[in-house]
Amino acid sequence: MNLKRILKKYKESLKKIEKITPQKVSFLFEDIERNIPKGMWLEDLKVNFEKGRVSISGYVYLNSYFNERRKITEFISRLSRLSKIGKLFPYVKVLRRERRNIQDFEVTYFEIGLRSEK
Asked: Which candidate, 109, 114, 33, places its Cα nearest to that of 68?
């Protein structure tokens, strides 16, 4: 990459960041909270507007690995259908899904990534 391209990319990222206000970010947290299915709880939520990424991690407990996987898929589907989130982060992917033991209960841990670009 030459210096002009790097500078142009940096300026474009800076413009995106400058447009973001707390009011524009709050919908993200509210929409995520409203769409968490029963049996699911979040452990972490990271937002990096500079890179156009959101990372969500948490757990699901429904006493069945099949049902827990289905709830993760349902959660992703709900988020993707939300117009504001879908426009900002059209690429959604399960980054990790694994069984873990918490206080003698088998639960499913998950990490989901939302991105603005491929």
From this structure: 109
